[in-house]
């Protein structure tokens, strides 16, 4: 999270102040101010590296697009086509099964974390709604 | 001083179920270190240290095992089979100098083996190929050889031919020597006889032998000329060519057998010694600074140079914490003080051990090329460089992989909380990509990691190694929040409850940082409005680790 916090002033009490008091103050300050500072939800984006026999390349790319993927490169080699894309992690649950089905079992992929990026509004709303429901269930 | 040319640090790469565990075990048995064979299905394998791996049939822990063959020291590094753990895969590839690619004789080249193969290609690891399970129904050596060509786009160099197949599989013909190795059905790997090539195979053997030599001599123009002029070549010369081509990955010497039936494994071990590189023959590790930029220096494999070593695996066993370490240059002796470049701290090495299949041997010192374990190190994580404090260098950048999946857990029993806390603390130290935090709102413990399987395994370790059973929530993507606007604000924390109260007031600016700068905290307080001693507490409260879970709490913003 790229965020800067600058302490510019404040006040203390000679008896009642303590490190703990300032820790709590900072945490509460954060909670108080985030909603006012134009908050944005960020989601993890994965580097996805897919291998598929050439024949299925079109299907695989179409599917990655539906998963909100951003194509970065595609190349064909003796082992088949290699497609690299940035795809939100939330769209990658169950991918291996879908990929196998699409490619008659021949496709394979690996993924690793790339970066965090802002969620599109409709996705953010969905996520927050779910989180609220979950929270309601816990408390 | 040990002779480094007699070292082979190797890994065994295989698709799940191709026979990695069985083959490793047969190797250890043959090399004389294991006397009783534990069958995999009974769960007695030696390199799979941890139960949960055996249950899953995957190997995620890299243990290193030392054994000896033909006066050579083999260190077998257990490579993670699952691609969810990319960093571990790359790290173990860095630690080894060569490998054995195991394929199933009937299943052939499977998608998972392609992935591992590609990683090994990326890391330039020379390999021999071993086509296993030739005793199985449907096994076909030649089909798998073809698949290596078509699917992996690699050049197999066929070194042996199978004698019989499926039920009838009894041994192999070594093409170079034109000798048949034939085993009886006792299951004892030593019960074999060296015989003449079976009459019905003579033509086939000559065809393949010719093909083998033609491919091999491409490595040496003089030899090629001799060969084309029809001269009979010395086997030693051909072997030299094969060794060179294997190291350059021009081709992959290819063998076959049945690990289960103990047929053919010796020839693979001979091949490891004959064709795979020793530590001096691989490219030396580049030295880097802590950001990962190369400094232009290399950790040259030489015991006389300053120490450079990489901690690649940390495991607890009943004797204490073991830090598996590969030495790239220099010498490490008991009692030495070494510097960990990642933490900046020095530590004294009190005990060194070499891990054998079912025992550990205390050693006084280790040298460049060795793979050993340091006992009882504190403050070390996998990927840390250990080096000479007077002459430091780093081998691997500090990566802080971002955990992207989280699950909530809760101990099943009331008293389990404390035990769970202690266990998790330990586990976090062993694996830098694993994070633990507490959700302040719900009081739940949240585990964060690299993938679903990664966390599944942690839950298993909790249960099996630490005896803590937990209830597990649904995996969640780890979202975060950021802000887009600058804001000046103030907050006063005030609590008056009988005797002592709590008071703290802060005025602050909160604003978006430059991309990639992460979290920054600064204090411009002058004149003691907030005494300096309280700044760190405010900073700590705001660090990402403590605020990450807060976003749920600040949901008010929508
Ligand atoms: N028929 C036959 N079965 C084998 C052979 N090698 C291994 N297996 C069996 O294949 C299964 C998987 O073997 P294992 O060594 O655990 O494979 P890993 O998952 O690659 O470690 C086990 O049931 C073994 O008994 C072999 O050479 N022939």
Low-confidence stretches of chain B: 33-62, 549-558
Number of domains of chain A: 2
* End-to-end CA span of chain B: 69 Å
Fraction of helical residues of chain B = 10-25%
CATH-defined topology of the largest domain in chain B: Rossmann fold
- The overall pLDDT average of chain A reads 86
Number of strands of chain A: 5
State the strand order across the main sheet of chain B. Answer: 18-17-23-14-15-22-19-20
Largest interface: A-B, 68 and 87 residues
Summarize the structure.
The complex is a heterodimer of chains A (139) and B (558). With 139 residues, chain A is of the alpha+beta class. Helices cover 37% and strands 37% of the residues of chain A.
Which secondary structure elements does this structure contain, and how are they paired or packed?
The complex is a heterodimer of chains A (139) and B (558).
Chain A lengths: L2 E9 L7 H15 L5 E14 L4 H10 L3 E8 L2 E9 L6 H8 L5 E11 L2 H18 L1
Antiparallel strand pairs in A: 2-4, 2-5, 3-4
Chain B lengths: L6 E8 L5 H11 L20 H6 L7 E6 L2 E6 L8 H10 L2 E7 L6 H12 L3 E7 L8 H10 L5 E3 L1 E4 L7 E4 L4 E5 L8 E4 L6 H16 L3 H8 L6 H13 L4 E5 L8 H11 L9 E4 L5 E6 L8 E10 L2 E10 L1 E3 L3 E4 L4 E4 L2 E5 L4 E4 L1 E3 L3 E5 L9 E3 L17 E7 L4 H15 L4 E4 L6 E5 L2 H13 L5 E3 L3 E2 L2 E4 L3 E9 L6 E11 L6 E5 L11 H8 L1 H4 L11
Parallel strand pairs in B: 1-3, 1-4, 4-5, 5-11, 6-11
Antiparallel strand pairs in B: 2-3, 7-8, 8-9, 9-10, 12-13, 14-15, 14-23, 15-22, 16-21, 17-18, 17-23, 19-20, 19-22, 24-26, 24-27, 24-28, 25-26, 30-31
The complex binds guanosine-5'-diphosphate (GDP).
Guanosine-5'-diphosphate binds next to helix 1 of chain B.
